[in-house]
Amino acid sequence: MNLPKIHSITKKIFVALLGAFLVIFLLFHACANLCILRHDDGAWYSAFCHFMGTNLIVKVFEVVLLGAFLLHILLTLWLWVTNKLARPVGYHQASRTKTHQGSKLQVWTGVLILALLIVHFCDFYFVKLGFVDGKYMVETQELMSDEVNAMQQAAAQYGMTPEAFIEANEQQLEMYAEQIPAEQQAEIKAQLDKLRASLPAANLVAQAEQEGMFSEDHKWIKGINSETNEQLKQAGFELEPDFYNMTREKFHNPIMAILYLIFFVIVWFHMRHAFAALFQTLGLYNYKYGPAIEVLASIYAWFVCLCFAAVVLLVFFGL
Ligand code: HEM
Q1: Which residue has a Cα nearest atom 23 of ligand 1?
Q2: Is the model more confident about 72 or about 102?
């Protein structure tokens, strides 16, 4: 096989720097997830996700991050293949150094992380991209257009649902068509069409009131199912994934909770080794600083993985 020639130390340095970027992202991701543990009906976490989902700089960062993930994986596999091709038969005497053992595990923990990351993306990120269904939320203010407000008030006045109110008005218009000038008829029809277009929004507000779907501060309507999301999308509304409720629902399921805990154990192994290997690749690991780097790597990996695990465990136990 003819692979383009890039010196393996160059590839290693790239892998290490991309890895460092991902390790920093994980610290940020783990800390941000702790907001889920606040008993504030998701106010902080939803605000955070809203910012992450709408800010332009974050959107650019997301592309860079996913690119870094992909490049990190491709370069690692490339290094692994070139190493295998360079020496198809193993060494007679296996190296017993700690680093070497860790490196051998690194490719396999990396492959497992990739597999679990696909599960993780199907759970959350692909919902944002619209590839899979989830739960959604929308700012109440966005739904409450003048039409929705007017329709709600009028329908309530007659003790009707918004649908029944529109239908009754359409019937009246048909019944008295001969007595109403054509111009006025067209105007009323246009108004009724506008009201019909805002029906999904009005229905959702009514449903939210009945089923207590408002956030505590009434700012959001949450826990919207994919069918309603589809209807509102067609009516021109843009909903956001309700990651707070999705996370809480997900980790109440023992199988998902266990799967994610396994995920974090593998991430721990990968990150623990990656952190120390990064310094080694950059030539900063020596007898003087080596022990300190090892301790720092452990603290870092434990901190990040315990933050992730805390979310799963505390949500699972309903705390
Ligand atoms: C308790 C554990 C975790 C929870 C609750 C969680 C939750 C989430 C959520 C809700 C998103 C979508 C956020 C958005 O797009 O706005 C996301 C995205 C992502 N997660 Fe996680 N995550 C967890 C652990 C992990 C771990 C261990 C990794 C990596 C090894 C990881 C890597 C990613 C990546 C790469 C993205 C896509 C980039 C992004 O949207 O920022 N997550 N996660």
Answers
A1: 308
A2: 72
